[in-house]
Amino acid sequence: MHGPASPGWLLVALCAATGAYCLLRMRSSVEEQRRSAGGEALMGFGMAAMAVPAAAFTPPSWTWPLYAAVFGAAALRALWAARDAPHHLHHLVGTAAMVYMAVVMAASPGPRHHAHSAPGVPLVTGLLLAYFTGYVLLSGVRLLPATATAGTGAVVGWGDRPELARACRLSMGIGMVAMLLTF
């Protein structure tokens, strides 16, 4: 990723922390929570690695095709999972965005990665920005507290709390917007 180093490192920290929390969510007793958390951990750590400022580390040229292959496989898995659970379509869009960014980075000459030199790139970037901006706004609204209702008093592990999972997805959405803005 290119751009100022400080925001880049903040994005790396946000995505890595999100990935780490998603790894902890994989210990959930709820099967769907575990499956979802694994894909989200991959996204978080992948985004963190991709967001490392180019001034600090310029990855070798073989890195981008590897990212494209890993996230291409994750996109196929999300497509397969979306048959039974439509909410996996968001995972499909996220992994496809990672593939797109990896392909653009692989095709970009030199360490500065002038992504807008390829035809069609601004259109795809714009569509992805519109999607993730809408996702971030909708996710933010969903985090607003609802009216309190009488609970059952059951103790829920902090890894199974739905509001933390939504906050995790929101932070990755914000990270994706930030990454796409640099393209």
Q: Can you tell me the overall shape?
A: globular
Structural class category: mainly alpha
How many separate helices?
6
Total domains: 1
Sheet of most strands: none
Total number of β-strand segments?
0
By oligomeric state, this entry counts as: single chain
Estimate the strand proportion.
Answer: under 5%
Compact description:
Mean pLDDT is 83; it is low at 112-117. The chain has helices spanning 5-25, 31-51, 63-81, 88-107, 121-142, 162-181.
Describe the structure.
It is a single chain. This protein is mainly α and 183 residues long. The chain has one domain (5-145, 158-181). Helices cover 67% and strands 0% of the residues. The protein contains 6 helices and no strands. It has helices at residues 5-25, 31-51, 63-81, 88-107, 121-142, 162-181. Mean pLDDT is 83; it is low at 112-117.
Fill in the keyword field for this structure.
single chain; 183 residues; mainly alpha; 67% helix; globular
Secondary-structure topology with pairs:
Layout (H helix, E strand, L loop, with lengths): L4 H21 L5 H21 L11 H19 L6 H20 L13 H22 L19 H20 L2
